[in-house]
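FAQ: What does the model actually see?

It sees only this:
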Amino acid sequence: MGQLVGVTEKASSQPGTLRFELNRTLSGQGHERFSTVEEARGDRPSAVLARRLIDHGGVDSVHVYSNIVTVELSRGSTGDGLGDVVTNLYQYWLPGVEPPSFDDAQPEEAAAPVTSGEGGEELSAAAQRVPAHLLERSKAAKERWAAKNG
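And it is asked to produce this:
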């Protein structure tokens, strides 16, 4: 599952530099440069890709600008396999791995009480589907608003 990223490897005039053009933007219109895994923190697509490229090995730094990824290779590295790392950026489920079902992904929530706390009146059918903690939070917010606005 997930989508493969369309990648075209372009020739660079500088030895030891690889340039990849992607079919989607990673950083918007901002330049991002990463030299270490620590610099590539967060879940932004450009940071995730930089971490994966640096972890792959043979990479000194990664520069991302929109849909262009420039990789500076370590001395003696050929960059083999880096194109696959970029292509599989959004590939979440790999062959042989069974994705979780929807039931596994959604935690069970307690059902709303059938009666409200005010005089025992019954809740509407829609309100019965709302989790109890949200009903309580809504009630508290209404009370704060009423106290503030008279």
